[in-house]
C-alpha cells in the first residue's frame, strides 16, 4: 500500500473519504464535493484507473482543495485500519465530514451451477467483503481513530436490483441487502453522536467499469432500453448522482438517517409495461 500527499499534516479543514475514488461514481463525487461544500479528498483506489485518478486529483486541486490518493484493496479490515491511519496523519482528528463507500468487486454467476460460473465460497466471501462488510470495517476504523467530524455523513451506494431479478446477479443483490442492514444499524449506533448514515439508490450510469464489461453494441442497446424504461427518457448521469451527494452532505439533508434514498428516477416503474406491451 502507498499514498501520495499534497501537503504535510492536518490543516484544520474537513475531508471526504471516498472508497473507489479513481473513476466512475466515486471520482465524480470526489470532484463534486470538492466544489461544494468544499471538502478535501482522501481517495482510496486499487490502481486500475491511474489516468482517471490523476484527472480527479487535478480537478480537486483546481477547486482549491487538497487531494490524497491511497492505493489499496479497501475490502479488508486491515486495509481499513491502515487507510484510516494514513488519513489521520494527513487530516487530523474529527476531520472526516463525509465517508462514501463506492467500491465494487462482485462475482456474477449462479449458486447451484456446476460450471465455471458457480458462486463458490471464495467468491461469496470476496463479494460480501467488498460490497458490504467493508462499509462496517471503515466505519469502525473511523470511530476508533476519532476521525468523524461533528455531524458526519456516512453514505453507501445501492442499485435497483433489490426490486427485480437479473440473471446471474443474485450475489450482488444479497450483498447489497446486507449493506442496507448495516446502514440501518449503524444509523442507530451513530445517530446519538450526531452522525447520519444513509444509502443512496440510483439506476444505471455510464462508467469506465461498464464500458469495460460491455461491447459498444451492448452499451448502445443498454442506452436504448433505458430511454424506454426511464420516465425521463434517458439514463441517469454521473454528474446528477454526484451533485445529489453534495446535497446529502449539506445541512438541508441533516434529518435523513438510516434511509434508503430512491434516486432511480422511476427506473423500474415501467418494467411490467415493457414486458406486456413491448
UniProtKB/TrEMBL annotation:
InterPro entries attached to this UniProt entry: NAD(P)-bd_dom_sf, SDR_DHRS6-like, SDR_fam
GO molecular function: oxidoreductase activity
Keywords, in A-Z order: Oxidoreductase
Entry annotated with the keyword Coiled coil: no
Top-rank taxon, per record: Bacteria
Keyword Iron-sulfur (UniProt): no
Family: Belongs to the short-chain dehydrogenases/reductases (SDR) family.
Record's protein name: SDR family oxidoreductase
Lineage: Bacteria, Pseudomonadati, Myxococcota, Myxococcia, Myxococcales
Amino acid at each position: 500500500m502507498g499514498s501520495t500527499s499534497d501537503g504535510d499534516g492536518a490543516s484544520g479543514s474537513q475531508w471526504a473519504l471516498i472508497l473507489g475514488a479513481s473513476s466512475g461514481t466515486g471520482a465524480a463525487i470526489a470532484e463534486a464535493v470538492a466544489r461544494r461544500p468544499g471538502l478535501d479528498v482522501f481517495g482510496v483506489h486499487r490502481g486500475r484507473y491511474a489516468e482517471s485518478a490523476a484527472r480527479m486529483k487535478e480537478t480537486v486541486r483546481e477547486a482549491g482543495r487538497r487531494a490524497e490518493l491511497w492505493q489499496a484493496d479497501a475490502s479488508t479490515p486491515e486495509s481499513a485500519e491502515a487507510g484510516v491511519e494514513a488519513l489521520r496523519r494527513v487530516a487530523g482528528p474529527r476531520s472526516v465530514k463525509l465517508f462514501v463507500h463506492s467500491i465494487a468487486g462482485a462475482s456474477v454467476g449462479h449458486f447451484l451451477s456446476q460450471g465455471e460460473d458457480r458462486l463458490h465460497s471464495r467468491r461469496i466471501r470476496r463479494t460480501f467483503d467488498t460490497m458490504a462488510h467493508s462499509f462496517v470495517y471503515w466505519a469502525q476504523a473511523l470511530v476508533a481513530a476519532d476521525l468523524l467530524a461533528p455531524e458526519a455523513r456516512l453514505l453507501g451506494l445501492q442499485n435497483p436490483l433489490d426490486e427485480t431479478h437479473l440473471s446471474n446477479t443474485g450475489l450482488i443483490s444479497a450483498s447489497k441487502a446486507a449493506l442496507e442492514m448495516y446502514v440501518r444499524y449503524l444509523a442507530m449506533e451513530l445517530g446519538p453522536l450526531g452522525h447520519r448514515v444513509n444509502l443512496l439508490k440510483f439506476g444505471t450510469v455510464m462508467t469506465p467499469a461498464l464500458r469495460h464489461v460491455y461491447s459498444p453494441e451492448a452499451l448502445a442497446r443498454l442506452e436504448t432500453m433505458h430511454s424506454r424504461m426511464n420516465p425521463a427518457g434517458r439514463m441517469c448521469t454521473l454528474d446528477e448522482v454526484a451533485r445529489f451527494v453534495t446535497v446529502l452532505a449539506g445541512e438541508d439533508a441533516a434529518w435523513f438517517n438510516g434511509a434508503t434514498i430512491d434516486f432511480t428516477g422511476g427506473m423500474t416503474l415501467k418494467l411490467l409495461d415493457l414486458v406486456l406491451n413491448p
